[in-house]
């Protein structure tokens, strides 16, 4: 069973975004540089071809980035829901949220919570607005903890 820490849930999406933005900026700079070099030396056609290739790559990466931003937005919304749930559970158990781990990255039925006080199951109401904590005893748990 895999459990995710509170720190992982709050920071899991930001790392790849910076890499993709850096790649976009690098491709943009290279594309502009090659195009300017082509304009200065119009007799050398290879710079025109290289600038077209890098501009095409830039458009491809930009399209992937836009697609990723849409999925990131929905994932961020779901992460906000799960972190709010973890904060509520921490308040009920009177522990810090950083000491809790959950077995899902989105809210759903029968979610498990690992705390210093033991394991708990979250049972949501039919409307999903509230939940009940049930203390559990796991037989031979094989826990994998995913941290930040």
What does this entry look like structurally?
There is one protein chain. The chain is of the alpha+beta class. Helices cover 55% and strands 18% of the residues. It has three helices and six strands. A hairpin with a 2-residue loop joins strand 3 (111-115) and strand 4 (118-124). It is rod-shaped and about 75 Å long.
The whole-angstrom Rg is 24 Å
By helix and strand content, what is the structural category?
Answer: alpha+beta
Largest sheet: 6 strands, mixed
Low-confidence regions: none
Distance between the termini: 17 Å
Give helix and strand order, one letter per element, not per position. EHHHEEEEE
User: What is the number of beta strands?
Assistant: 6
Classify the helix fraction into a percent range: 40-55%
Global morphology: rod-shaped
Mean pLDDT: 81
Widest sheet, order of strands: 5-4-3-2-1-6
β-strand percent reads 15-25%
| Helix segment tally | 3
Question: What is this structure, in a nutshell?
Answer:
The chain is of the alpha+beta class and 148 residues long. The chain has helices at residues 6-11, 14-40, 46-93; strands spanning 2-5, 101-102, 111-115, 118-124, 131-136, 144-146.
Secondary-structure topology with pairs:
Blueprint: E1 2-5, H1 6-11, H2 14-40, H3 46-93, E2 101-102, E3 111-115, E4 118-124, E5 131-136, E6 144-146
Parallel strand pairs: 1-6
Antiparallel strand pairs: 1-2, 2-3, 3-4, 4-5
Helix pairs in contact: 2-3
């Amino acid at each position: 069973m895999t459990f995710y820490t509170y720190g992982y849930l709050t920071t899991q999406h930001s790392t790849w975004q910076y890499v993709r933005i850096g790649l976009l900026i690098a491709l943009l700079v290279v594309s502009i540089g090659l195009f300017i070099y082509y304009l200065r030396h119009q007799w050398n056609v290879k710079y025109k071809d290289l600038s077209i290739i890098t501009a095409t790559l830039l458009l491809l990466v930009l399209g992937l980035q836009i697609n990723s931003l849409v999925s990131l937005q929905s994932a961020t919304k779901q992460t906000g829901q799960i972190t709010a749930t973890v904060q509520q559970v921490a308040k009920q158990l009177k522990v810090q949220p950083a000491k809790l781990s959950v077995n899902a990255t989105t809210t759903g039925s029968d979610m498990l919570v690992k705390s210093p006080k033991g394991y708990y199951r979250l049972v949501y109401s039919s409307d999903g607005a509230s939940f009940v904590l049930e203390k559990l005893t796991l037989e031979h748990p094989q826990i994998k903890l995913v941290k930040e």
